[in-house]
Amino acid sequence: MNPAIYSEFIKPKDIAINDQFWGAFMERVRTKVIPYQWKALNDKVPGAEPSYCIRNFKLAAELTHPDLYYGVPRDIGFGGMVFQDSDLAKWIEAAAYSLAWHPDGELEKTLDETIDIICNAQQDDGYLDTYYIIKGLEKRFTNLKDNHELYCLGHYIEAATAYYEVAGKRKLLDAMIRYVDCVDKNIGAEEGKLHGYPGHEIAEMALVRLYAVTNDEKHLKLAKYFIDQRGQPPLFFEEETRRNGNTFYWKDSYVQYQYYQAGKPVREQHIAEGHAVRAVYLYSGMADVARLTGDDSLLAVCGDLWNDIVHRQMYITGSIGQSAYGEAFSYDYDLPNDTAYAETCAAIGLAFFARRMASIMPKGEYADVIERTLFNGIISGMALDGESFFYVNPLEALPQASLKDRRMRHVKIERQKWFGCACCPPNLARIIASLGSYVHSANGGSVYTHLYVGSEARLAPGGRELKIKIETKYPWEGQVDISFALEGKAAFSYGLRIPSWCKSFSLKLNGDNAAYSMQDGYALLNREWQDGDRITLTFDMPVNLVETNPHVRDNSGRIAVTRGPIVYCLEEKDNGKELFRLHAGRPEDFTVTYGKDLPEGLCTISFTGKREKDWQDGALYRNLADAAYEDKKLILIPYYAWANRGAGEMTVWIHK
Amino acid sequence: MNPAIYSEFIKPKDIAINDQFWGAFMERVRTKVIPYQWKALNDKVPGAEPSYCIRNFKLAAELTHPDLYYGVPRDIGFGGMVFQDSDLAKWIEAAAYSLAWHPDGELEKTLDETIDIICNAQQDDGYLDTYYIIKGLEKRFTNLKDNHELYCLGHYIEAATAYYEVAGKRKLLDAMIRYVDCVDKNIGAEEGKLHGYPGHEIAEMALVRLYAVTNDEKHLKLAKYFIDQRGQPPLFFEEETRRNGNTFYWKDSYVQYQYYQAGKPVREQHIAEGHAVRAVYLYSGMADVARLTGDDSLLAVCGDLWNDIVHRQMYITGSIGQSAYGEAFSYDYDLPNDTAYAETCAAIGLAFFARRMASIMPKGEYADVIERTLFNGIISGMALDGESFFYVNPLEALPQASLKDRRMRHVKIERQKWFGCACCPPNLARIIASLGSYVHSANGGSVYTHLYVGSEARLAPGGRELKIKIETKYPWEGQVDISFALEGKAAFSYGLRIPSWCKSFSLKLNGDNAAYSMQDGYALLNREWQDGDRITLTFDMPVNLVETNPHVRDNSGRIAVTRGPIVYCLEEKDNGKELFRLHAGRPEDFTVTYGKDLPEGLCTISFTGKREKDWQDGALYRNLADAAYEDKKLILIPYYAWANRGAGEMTVWIHK
After folding, report:
1. Is A383 a residue whose pLDDT tops 60?
2. Is the same domain home to B489 and B451?
3. B553 and A325 in contact by Cβ < 8 A?
4. Predicted local distance difference test score (pLDDT) of residue A588
5. Does any domain span residue B169?
């Protein structure tokens, strides 16, 4: 490891997004998703399953402070999932980021009042999980494997640090520091403590983020303990399960404790296994701890896990977690399109992991994956109107199969308003609202631009303020104009990511061809910069036909259509039923159209392919005959925009 | 309907099989399967899950006759599945057929002793189901939907009639007539009776078979009642479910009461739905009752259901029931290969249905399906050594997926010794042992040969004895020699089925080209026959590449290899891993080899295809490049013989 090349990503408050593409998403999150989720958290969405989330906090506060009364009957009990608290944390985090680019006094007031309620539920020793506060504190920390206390803690740390960074307010942060102290007193290496760790990871990376704010070694140490202790024999979860009466859902499954990535020490884990969201949250924390502790052995497994995911278990959309059973990874090169689980949260988690790896080593493949997930498997989780959501993001949709085939019953053909287990919508809100923090990173001697997002950012490479302005119509057009504002001159290396999809580009500096060197996917300009320097990076953005490694059974003989970072798909609406009868052939002429008959100025691609003709006799089988095709205009729309015009078939992969 | 063309299939006792192919299977059933299953029924297979089947009967007999003691503790309780009785019935039926072609005094003695035990368990009013005799008779007939009394009854009728037809012994037959009387007193249209019907069908066709022996209209009437009453509103099963506390497993499923084919009257059922074995058993009974009652409305739905199965829901192997969920049909043109359920028993049931349709109308498509199922999806259920069995018969096997993919956990890569729910092995035994009864059918003026099986048969068209001898090496070779023996001369039409796979054949009569007319898939010779007439039918038997109707998503872009009635497959053993990387191309030269390095003189087919080369860089996706293939000799073996040489991949469908 080389700490000299570590770079820090920019914080949301230091970048103002002003982007045709992402601006629309962020605005949708701000004006639709965050208000809608606020209503949902307060059980005020007519017809939707109640969340009970705010009610739980109010009740917990009432039970903690007998003088308080929020109007919640004290005997009403806990509502929702055991991890219901986390939904509010995600909402707070998203709302905080939203404030960073769009101040909103009303929303900030709501946040402060909500944080007051949360803090009123906190116990004297710092403990703060409404499930146990309401149902009985004597049971707390007795089921780390399944009951998500440390998961909720992790999300609250994320929320608290985000709000602190944006608004400078410490109340929730201080509450979380106290809660971490409480956990630290109960869990750890020392005798008398539980030698446990989270059943659903996230606390690891959250504690690192807390450490970045507090600089308190205790916070890094606890993150490191959770990672180092995980899967050490004798298995903590096995002992805990025994104490809890041996109810172990995954006992007869091939995943067993690897469902939690807890069947063996993390340094012996080289293949991504188990619940996909948990996995990438863990790997994100591992990368963080590896970076901060200079732990080469931990970084090495992060690299192995990264390679396993990205080269053997990732959909072209950046989605991961192939299997509905356990919402989990399955095995290398297994990438079923129709039964894909491909949870929105898992793609989000992969972006987290990628950003952390990019922070350690500026290699284009990390930001390539961030881009792939963001433009495809993440935002597919949200309708274009911001009002409904996918948990599962298949790469092939068959309405009849979703109705009649048990293997596909998890695959919804239309996005849902809300979920009983509502992890994905608020997770979407927080990553989109914090999108700016993926754009640039910097260290003393270098600045990197990873994503091309219209924005104005403030960085400080080597302590000197640098403003970077990006103007672009990316991903629909390939030109990116970048300009610098700085006082005086400054020498530093500036790296511009050249996406792996791009085979040809031009790079101009102040109107002339720029001298650059390519390194690990970045075009590096190493020079003395001055105010007003202008860079124009222009990517050729042809339509590409993409094929999959022949180890992948499900995509054999098929291509996908991409342009720039966007993966396209066929929908029934444009192409009729039985999309599997369509063949791309080897088209050379593509028509790229902007926004015709589609919402949001979406770019569509069309070309002449073929369709297998009906057989005349209705037979099911026949001796192979010369293929009977008819020419057929294929019309593709961006994958993320599917299922916005009613229910129907969809496919990403098309027969050659 | 035209009763003049109805024909009766020959009975097992009237045909002696002497066939290279089927003789080996029958011998295996006789010497391996029947003795092994006898041990299993008696809980004497070391390491196998006990059946408890014989023990249940002994216990029921002891409870019925306090003076009897078979050594079974009286407080030990019922063992096995609720339908455990049926396993013994299937065994008796298979053993009876076995006696027909291979007399065996020891086996017959065992049968008689077993029948004594069974009859000792019978109640005074004829009732005979060990589950309720042991667990409490007050509950009998209270759960027709799930508790399989009428299913077991059906199997016992089949066993009793088979044994009566073969050995002329009435004891079990008489017992079953008494049991039917008991059922008839309790279930039927009359007031005070339950207006119910079987949850798992088979009694319908069994009662028709009983009627053929007894000529007692009551037996046909009860079969007809079960069929006519099925699914009539108000739904009997719905009311029964309510009485039993509303536990209905399929309530939230799309199948609901159609799991049992009992959600609507049978004459409103035009699509094959629900549990596949139940479905085809019902349809078999419907065809039987339609034939005997001349019911055109019933025959019309049989035709619809037949067409739906054969033209829209049948695997090329003749297997049916695509979905593990409910062991059921899924929907038209859904034919997944890897997750196929394709239960052995369902293919057997389809052969039952086909034989009954062929009995009504001699159309080649019926016997084509009998042949397709028998040579492929039925016998694939048994290992070549007769010692292990498949319940599920996938068309693509992936060992890693069966281990790690929940969608495929029902797909076993190696045949199993025995099953807790052991329906398939004894069902296999009974159909193979009764194979002769599928070969010919006859009525007054016509004889049809449906299957080409080396045999000597005795028929009586128009009351005059006719002996037909078939000599052939079918299915490996296309020549079939047929000779007639009869006293004097007889005029009748003789129909020889020309299989749909056959595009060219020659037909000689006594050495000269025969004059024949083609009708519905049969070559008809209408003449006056005499003793010693010889027919030589020679099918051209090239290797065929077969493709699937473009409505079928899963076979798009793929071919299967067949020769004669045999469907071939690729196995890992011969072709290496990742069979999905192989492409057939458009080969014209095939090598057909007999028995090299394979058990049983199996015929193999090989040809030069292609294999996708590895990518050098290990990337998961890339821009479409020119396909890099290497020539690869593909070696195929008969599908039914897969998984006889260790675990590995298998596929029927190969990329074009």
Report:
1. yes
2. yes
3. no
4. 87
5. yes
Residue A249 shares a structural domain with residue A283:
yes
| pLDDT of A653 | 98
pLDDT tens readout for residues A588-619: 899 999 876 666 678 999 999 999 999 988 89
Show the domain range for B358. 13-438
Q: What are the φ/ψ torsions at residue A106 (nearest 5 degrees)?
A: -65, -45
CATH number at residue B521: 2.60.40
Interface touch A405/B559, C-beta < 8 Å: no
Q: For residue B304, what is the enclosing H or E element? A: helix B296-312
Same domain, A531 and A587: no
Give the per-residue pLDDT at B254: 85
Residue B525 lies in a domain: yes
pLDDT of residue B600: 64
- Residue whose C-alpha is closest to residue A10's, from A365, A302, A359: A359
pLDDT tens-digit map of B578-624: 999 999 998 989 999 987 666 667 899 999 999 999 998 889 999 99
Chain B positions touching A553 (Cβ under 8 A) are 398, 578, 580
Q: How far apart are CA A196 and CA A198, in angstroms?
A: 7
Residues B575, B533: one domain? no
Based on the fold, state whether residues A500 and A534 are members of the same structural domain: yes
pLDDT band at A103 (very low <50, low <70, confident <90, very high): very high
Residue pLDDT, tens place only, B286-334: 999 999 999 999 999 999 999 999 999 999 999 999 999 999 999 999 9
Number of domains chain B contains: 3
Rounded CA gap, B23 and B16, in Å? 10
Q: Which residue has the tokens 């026959």?
A: B529
Exposure string of A117-144, with b = 16+ CB inside 10 Å and e = fewer, is bbbbbbbeebbbbbbbbbeeeeebbebb
Average pLDDT estimate for A156-165: 98
Which residues in chain A are contacts of B614 at CB distance < 8 A? 550
Chain A nearest C-alpha distance from B461 (Å): 34
pLDDT score recorded for residue B61: 97
The DSSP output letter for A650 is E
Among the listed residues A327, A365, A571, A572, the single catalytic one is: A327
Q: Tell me whether residue A165 is in a domain.
A: yes
Strands A650-651 vs B455-459: parallel, antiparallel or unpaired = unpaired
Contact B557 A553 (CB under 8 A): no
The single-letter code of the amino acid at A580 is: F
B618, A407: Cβ pair inside 8 Å?
no
Residues A247, A331, single domain; the answer is yes
Could you say which of A387, A404, A438 is where a domain stops? A438
Across the interface, whether the CB atoms of A546 and B613 are under 8 A apart is answered no
Segment B121-139 shows an average pLDDT of 97
| Nearest chain A Cα distance for residue B374, angstroms | 18
B334 to chain A: nearest residue by CA? A401
Q: What residue in A sits closest to B611 (Cα-Cα)?
A: A550
pTM reported for the whole predicted model: 0.94
Dist. CA A325–CA B315, nearest whole Å:
27
Mean pLDDT of A433-460: 95
Q: Do A578 and B551 touch (CB under 8 A)?
A: yes
Q: Which of A423, A424, A502, A603 is catalytic?
A: A423
Cα–Cα dist A465/B484, whole Å: 104
Cα separation, A412 vs B546, whole angstroms: 34
**What is the sign, positive or negative, of the torsion defined by CA atoms of A152, A154, A159, A163?**
positive
What is the pLDDT at residue A563? 97
Domain assignment present for A4: no
Phi-psi region of A71 (alpha: psi -120 to 50; beta: other; left: phi over 0): left
Sort out which chain B residues have CB atoms less than 8 A from A620's CB and list them: 310-312, 314, 548-549, 552
User: Could you tell me how many CB contacts below 8 A there are between chain A and chain B?
Assistant: 144
Give per-residue pLDDT as tens, B98-120.
999 899 999 999 999 999 999 99
Whole-angstrom distance, CA of residue A187 vs CA of residue A222: 9
- B263 and B192 in one domain? yes
Query: Do B193 and B342 have their domain in common?
Result: yes
